[in-house]
């Protein structure tokens, strides 16, 4: 059953969008499904252009012949979705919004901005996701079917799981794109410094209306170093000065805030736990070129510098999951694919 799930291993910002775009380029999926919510941004670089996506699946950047959808369990803003459809130049037939997708309204954003606990201690992105999720739990949240006329100006409202079942039964390729990372899971992360939902592979499948047995592959994505936005523990955290010296400074896609940085070696316990909890079958490691500049732009394993190969071999042995994708630059196709 050709269903692949992509999830983050750490605290988000691992490069899931890049790997999703690369994988779609390789596998030409019939359906690409985004789970999660708009508090998580995926950045993809393709043909010299930057795409920042918060609602649509990243695979649409590199493969336009498939259809992209938002899962029943996803939370989106209609305006954010509309802007992304325009950014990618998609037809309404290419963009599928499940009728049960939750809709974030202005009132949810305002509610979070008034919450000193979220803005201060937790370091929330303040995009209305937590407030909308709270309304969903209390059965007050409006769904896509309540805004069908507005959404269908640029997308199509559907029963997405039914389409996925038909695709799976016909052995068509389906990609499920998770958000954030295991360390931010509401249930398994560094509570209370977590997001408002579970973000494991099984949760992503559930949000899409699929069962764990539908997945043929779970790709766990990590960076060659660890970053975190906002509050919460981070083992081995580097000072800003040291992070700058090592060339590891980054800024969040959604918040624009500087990301905190730590070596991956200091967080291997979390990475191994994420591999086990997600049932990872493959590991993707991005930004290897940041640690090993000679790896920049390499697309074949044999062309990687020896020091990078040794580091990757050691990491694979430590985690116990085969490394099948290695990111060597910001472009989606600047990737070593050890297998398609």
Automatic annotation (TrEMBL):
Record key words, sorted: Cytoplasm, GTP-binding, Ligase, Magnesium, Metal-binding, Nucleotide-binding, Purine biosynthesis
InterPro entries: Adenylosuccinate_synth_dom1 (IPR042109), Adenylosuccinate_synth_dom3 (IPR042111), Adenylosuccinate_synthetase (IPR001114), P-loop_NTPase (IPR027417)
Cofactor field: Mg(2+)
Entries under Pfam families matching the protein: Adenylsucc_synt
Binding site for GTP: 12-18, 41-43, 259, 287-289, 327-329
CC annotations in GO: cytoplasm
MF-aspect GO terms: adenylosuccinate synthase activity; GTP binding; magnesium ion binding
Domain of life (superkingdom): Archaea
Pathway involvement of the protein, from the record: Purine metabolism; AMP biosynthesis via de novo pathway; AMP from IMP: step 1/2
Entry EC number(s): 6.3.4.4
Annotated active site: 13 (proton acceptor), 42 (proton donor)
GO biological process, any: 'de novo' AMP biosynthetic process
Reactions mediated catalytically: IMP + L-aspartate + GTP = N(6)-(1,2-dicarboxyethyl)-AMP + GDP + phosphate + 2 H(+)
Subcellular compartments: Cytoplasm
Binding site for substrate: 253-259
Self-association and partners: Homodimer.
Annotated family: Belongs to the adenylosuccinate synthetase family.
Role description: Plays an important role in the de novo pathway of purine nucleotide biosynthesis. Catalyzes the first committed step in the biosynthesis of AMP from IMP.
Protein name: Adenylosuccinate synthetase
Gene of this entry: purA
């Amino acid at each position: 059953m050709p269903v692949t799930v992509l999830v983050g291993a750490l605290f988000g910002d691992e490069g899931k969008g890049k790997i999703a775009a690369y994988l779609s380029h390789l596998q030409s999926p019939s359906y690409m499904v985004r789970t999660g919510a708009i508090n998580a941004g995926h950045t993809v670089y393709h043909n010299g252009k930057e795409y920042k996506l918060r609602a649509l699946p990243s695979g649409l950047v590199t493969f336009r012949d498939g259809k992209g959808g938002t899962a029943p369990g996803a939370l989106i803003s209609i305006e954010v979705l509309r802007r992304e459809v325009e950014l990618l130049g998609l037809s309404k037939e290419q963009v599928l919004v499940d009728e049960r997708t939750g809709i974030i309204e202005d009132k949810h954003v305002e509610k979070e901005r008034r919450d000193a606990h979220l803005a201060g201690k937790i370091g929330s992105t303040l995009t209305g996701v937590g407030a909308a999720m709270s309304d969903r739990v209390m059965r007050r949240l409006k769904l896509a079917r309540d805004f069908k006329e507005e959404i269908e100006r640029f997308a199509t409202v559907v029963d997405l799981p039914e389409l996925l079942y038909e695709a799976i039964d016909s052995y068509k390729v389906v990609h499920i794109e998770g958000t954030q990372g295991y360390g931010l899971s509401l249930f398994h992360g560094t509570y209370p410094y977590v997001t408002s939902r579970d973000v494991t592979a099984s949760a992503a499948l559930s949000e899409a209306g699929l069962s764990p047995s539908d997945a043929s592959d779970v790709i766990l994505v990590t960076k060659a170093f660890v970053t975190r936005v906002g509050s919460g523990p981070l083992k081995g955290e580097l000072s800003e000065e040291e992070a700058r010296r090592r060339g590891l400074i980054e800024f969040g896609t959604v918040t624009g805030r500087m990301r905190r940085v730590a070596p991956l070696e200091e967080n291997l316990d979390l990475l191994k736990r994420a591999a086990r909890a997600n049932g990872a079958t493959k590991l993707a490691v991005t930004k290897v070129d940041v640690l090993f500049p000679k790896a920049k732009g390499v697309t074949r394993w044999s062309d990687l510098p020896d020091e990078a190969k040794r580091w990757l071999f050691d990491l694979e042995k430590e985690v116990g999951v085969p490394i099948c994708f290695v990111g060597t630059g910001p472009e989606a196709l600047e990737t070593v694919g050890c297998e398609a």
